[in-house]
Design goal:
The structure is a homodimer of 234-residue chains.
Chain A lengths: L3 E4 L9 H15 L8 H16 L3 H15 L6 H15 L9 H9 L4 E6 L2 H11 L7 E5 L4 H10 L7 E5 L2 H10 L3 E4 L21 E3 L6 H11 L1
Parallel strand pairs in A: 1-2, 1-4, 2-3, 4-5, 5-6
Chain lengths: 234, 234
Amino acid sequence: MFRLIAFDADDTLWHNERLYTKGRDRFRRLLASYDVHDAIEEYVHQTEMRNIRYYGFGVMSFALSLIEAAIDLTHGRISSGDIGSLLDMGKEMLTADIDLFEGAEEAVAHLSAQYPLMLITKGDLLHQQAKVEQSGLAKYFRHVEVVSDKSEATYRAILSRLHLDPAHFLMVGNSLRSDILPVVRLGGWAVHIPAELSWSYEEAELPGGLHERYFEVRNLGELPGFLESLRNQA
Amino acid sequence: MFRLIAFDADDTLWHNERLYTKGRDRFRRLLASYDVHDAIEEYVHQTEMRNIRYYGFGVMSFALSLIEAAIDLTHGRISSGDIGSLLDMGKEMLTADIDLFEGAEEAVAHLSAQYPLMLITKGDLLHQQAKVEQSGLAKYFRHVEVVSDKSEATYRAILSRLHLDPAHFLMVGNSLRSDILPVVRLGGWAVHIPAELSWSYEEAELPGGLHERYFEVRNLGELPGFLESLRNQA
């Protein structure tokens, strides 16, 4: 039924958003002594959204946006020492240990014996590659793609390079916006595994009519069994 | 003779280093009012080198390193307004127009009729893709690879994915370190086109014994004729 199964990485195979959540908390604490009256969280979000076109996704983008937001929100009163601590935080995030979700390795190892697997992740090229390497999961994936965005065009280009009909492609991920919607729109299949923490950017509404092409399982441990049952139905 | 010809992009097909040179000049002027006694240029270079392992190559890496160097060199006296102007500079560099080298399009168009062409460029994924798009040259390349570093392992992985023997591969670029040395070491061929401005990082000494596998031409305009003469000799 499926000739290729692709996985998202961040918040699908390993924890990621909680590093950003911690980062946002640290940012708020940093600004506490500056008597900032604007809504910090919202301002950071708007800055990140505005900067995606320059910086794309990832930790460097986050760090640069936090520095910009800190200058704006404090009307230039932020100390250079505090800006330096935002740089330090970025480096800590870039070198943080990979913490796999429970059952991630088992699920991926199990499925890699039955299907060719691909990893599709968006963000900083160097950092995403380093995380894949450090995760110990690289050996299970035939292809690893780091992309600048997960749009329909991105998935179309990947599938076309592999001469693969979307009808034979399944994507597994936590993000309705990046992993599910573009794939089912293309005529592919998707399994949504909601993460406890997901970035608000990754939310999406799925239009009616597409629901029959996507499924939801609660965690990675359920995935092999679910695909088995799907295969038995087909 | 060659089954694939690959081009570097920055400072091979279009101007790039001069944006960084301008950036370094602007940084020096910015620090002029802070009574900095250290060697600014050297400190920036050391900061960039130290940070490659975190940030990789590209404008975001450069901007983050300049902010860090500014804080260090001024012992924290840099104003947040001046840090903001470094952020602005980064965004200007990320959106600067592409200025092709003379003869670049003609050379690439001409060769694309005879060989499959590939573009191999290192840096920020989103920015490098945007530059390729904006250059108008994308249509001449069968493959475009944005890589985090141009090591022997990188070239080996690319060639192995294409099932291509290095003996049939030619790389064209301005950087001895990134475009020439790793390729000839692998058993491939290379054409060096020195750029007027190249980043000091990109210099390298070629060990003896490898010279017969690499050639030098003065500019892109000479490349098609040179390859023609090489083919006639073979």
